[in-house]
Design brief:
heterotrimer; A mainly alpha (343); B mainly alpha (167); C alpha+beta (196); A: 343 residues; mainly alpha; 12 helices; 2 strands; 66% helix; B: 167 residues; Four Helix Bundle (Hemerythrin (Met), subunit A); 76% helix; 0% strand
């Protein structure tokens, strides 16, 4: 625990925090642009070239909006809601391996803030407490739409969390570890988990959409029925936090999908290039971000393609389709592992 | 190790304060949220004991699932102060006696238990995934499987109760 | 398909008979249909965009577009309107109002007729730009132009008075595209009830 080590961790953590915020900021623009393109429009293009200053303009607007609080709201919890959502959204990035290690002067610096040996479970813990911000905010607003949104969010999150963890158990069984960095290292080169777990990937993807409250599972905030759901009563930067947290969640979910199923920072023929360890690491990190961007694109693509689920359909899909499929996937995986160990 | 000792005191303070607040708070919603905070503080204690697996599972199960269902119920019950019914004197006395007896039992257990001070928690390996799995699936295999059967029975019972038309 | 549906004749040939047949397994997992949907949205990424960059580029509009009104002057620069009120009567939205006044001898060069409109107002928020005022006018005084009524912040600023409506004497508005001989002939036709 020397000063050097603390400094390196501090720099790494700040960099990841900044990158997460920056990516979330620009994914709002990306989403609006894509929405425009999917609908044969151009999207925002007035603030700077291609509208690159649009996120700044949006943020500025949110800052200068009137800060409104309903008279009958629970003051403390009303403020706690969005703050908690934002904080929890940023927590997960700590365990994601953003790249392999960089060797400077013979000392190895890993590009992962915390390599804890229960990384997968940590991600689940954060996911499962992610619903608190929405529930507290929705309840504290003292508004029936917000309350219904919060109730929907809670039951949706719990239902899909189950199927999601079942889908990941197959990965854990295959790799025999809960550490994310080890899971990534086992997918070295082109041995990505997607080739062995296509069904698990599909289940995880669907559940990731539900956990992020993204379309087609955006029932907690569906505009047509609930006027915005849990954030009906929020305005100014508190609303901004809720909206922003959604984009951070999307970024983190994309990173998780890439880490668990698409080899993280690994890319094909990484050993045949004959480059130094540091160069491979840099390329790997860039590849990782390309993968994340692709899944971010998929998130948006789905939003502008599929219509929203009805609530009973959502529950039926989660409990009667995804959960049994995940269990079947676990049984198949276990069977294959058993056969492999015996031969 | 001084740092982790300070952390222990801070976490203990938070845990006890939150637990007291659960009882004192007027609003049921606040009570539930303070209970969640207490669970987080206890998860912190697990981490100090180098039991990362237990800490994370504690958060997933208690904070992530059970407390969410608690909040869910409280949110829908609309328990405000006007709707609170007055408790009878008998109920007050009975609950005080029951609580006091529980406290006595707990103190008795602690007195009979040989409390050891763990010299270096970092060397304590039982809370890690690998060692915990070994213990569970080798030494305590039968109880572990039996408890899972118990859960299954509870689940089936809940489904049967929830079904409207049984024929 | 039951035989009961057979004799229903589809006039367009595009109607489909709804059926509640049981879905096959491939249809029930929805994935092929979802993939097809993704294909459709993806193809839209490369389609030509329908957006027009408005202030710089404007949509081409017809020469006889019905936009902001103009009160015409005659060749000598005198106002044509005689404040007969037919336009106000014809207006289905009741957007037009006016106050008539008598022409003084020293105003001969200003107004063509003996009676003129001292106040002539059109409420542009009520106006539906139907052009009936133009059709009703016996003096060929009011016309709609292809100019668009601009937006504003206050309701009161949408009540256009004579200052805005009467064409400037040095900047005459060309309405020859709207006032073709055919239109003039039609207006003279006494068999049309509204021209009597």
């Amino acid at each position: 625990m020397d000063g050097n080590y603390i400094l390196y961790k501090f720099i790494l953590a700040s960099a990841i925090l900044l990158i997460s915020l920056l990516v979330a900021m620009y994914s709002t623009l990306f989403e609006r642009k894509l929405a425009g393109f999917f609908q044969d429009r151009l999207g925002p293009n007035r603030a700077g070239i291609f509208g690159i200053f649009q996120p700044l303009a949006d943020g500025l607007k949110l800052f200068f909006k009137e800060e409104f609080m309903p008279g009958s709201a629970d003051k403390f919890l009303y403020i706690l809601g969005p703050s908690l959502t934002m904080m929890i959204a940023l927590l997960t990035s700590a365990v994601i391996p953003w790249g392999n290690s960089i060797i400077i002067n013979g000392v190895e610096y890993s590009l992962q803030v915390a390599d804890i040996n229960v990384g997968v479970l940590y991600v689940f813990a954060i996911l499962s407490i992610g619903v608190y911000g929405i529930m507290i905010g929705g309840w504290a607003s003292n508004n029936k739409y917000a309350l219904i949104g919060a109730v929907r969010a809670a039951s949706q999150m719990i239902s899909y969390e189950l199927a999601m963890s079942m889908a990941i158990i197959s990965i854990v069984m295959m790799s025999g570890t809960l550490s994310l960095s080890e899971i990534v290292n086992q997918q070295h080169g082109f041995h990505w988990n997607i080739w062995y777990q296509p069904l698990g990937f599909l289940l995880f993807l669907v559940c990731a959409f539900a956990e992020c409250n993204r379309s087609p599972f955006d029932l907690p905030e569906c505009e047509t029925e609930l006027i915005g759901g849990y954030h009906t009563e929020y305005s100014s930067m508190k609303l901004g936090f809720y909206l922003f947290a959604e984009y951070i969640n999307m970024f983190i979910s994309s990173a998780m999908i890439a880490t668990l199923y698409f080899g993280g920072y690994n890319f094909p023929f990484m050993d045949d290039l004959g480059l130094s360890h540091n160069a491979i690491t840099m390329i790997g990190t860039i590849v990782f971000f390309i993968k994340i961007s692709f899944f971010g694109f998929v998130f948006m693509w789905v939003r502008w393609t599929l219509p929203r689920f009805r609530y009973d359909q959502l529950m039926r899909l989660g409990w009667k389709t995804l959960l049994p499929l995940a269990l079947v996937n676990i049984v198949i995986t276990g069977f294959v592992i058993m056969l492999k160990n015996h031969s | 190790m001084v740092f982790s000792r300070y952390l222990f005191f801070i976490l203990s303070f938070v845990a006890i304060y939150a637990a007291l607040k659960v009882l004192i708070s007027k609003s049921p919603m606040h009570s539930v949220l303070y209970l969640t905070l207490a669970f987080f503080a206890i998860a912190g204690h697990y981490i100090l004991l180098n039991a990362q697996f237990l800490a994370v599972v504690h958060i997933i199960v208690y904070a992530g699932a059970i407390m969410v269902l608690f909040i869910y119920t409280v949110m829908l019950l609309n328990l405000n102060i006007q709707g609170e019914f007055p408790k009878s004197k008998f109920a007050n006395i009975a609950s005080t006696i029951a609580g006091g007896l529980l406290l006595l039992t707990l103190i008795a257990i602690f007195k009979s238990y040989d409390l050891k001070v763990i010299a270096n928690p970092a060397l304590n390996q039982i809370g890690l995934v690998k060692s915990l799995g070994k213990v569970l699936f080798e030494d305590y295999f039968l109880p572990f499987e039996l408890s899972s059967v118990l859960f299954l029975a509870a689940m089936v019972g809940a489904v049967m109760l929830g079904k409207k038309d049984i024929y | 398909m039951s035989s009961a549906n057979q004799h229903i004749v589809s006039l367009t040939g595009r109607s489909k008979v709804a059926s509640n047949k049981k879905m096959t397994f491939m249809e029930r997992i929805y994935l092929p249909a979802i993939m097809k949907g993704f294909g459709i949205t993806f193809s839209h990424l490369f389609k030509k965009k329908a957006t027009i960059q408005y202030p710089e580029v404007t949509r081409p509009i017809a020469e006889i577009y019905r936009g902001k009104h103009v009160l015409k002057r005659d060749d000598e620069g005198r106002e044509r309107c005689t404040a007969c009120g037919l336009c106000a009567l014809a207006c289905p939205a009741e957007a037009i109002t006016m106050i008539a006044a008598e022409r003084k001898p020293d105003e001969m060069h200003l107004y063509r007729e003996e009676k003129y409109a001292s106040v002539y107002e059109i409420n542009m928020l009520r106006c539906i730009f139907c052009g009936l005022c133009e059709e009703a006018c016996p003096k060929e005084a009011i016309f709609l132009t292809n100019e668009i009524v601009p937006s504003d912040y206050e309701r009161s600023s949408f009540i256009y008075g004579k200052v805005i409506l009467v064409e400037p004497i040095d900047k005459r508005v060309d309405i020859s595209k709207r006032q073709t001989p055919a239109v003039l002939n039609f207006k003279k036709d006494k068999n049309q009830s509204h021209n009597i």
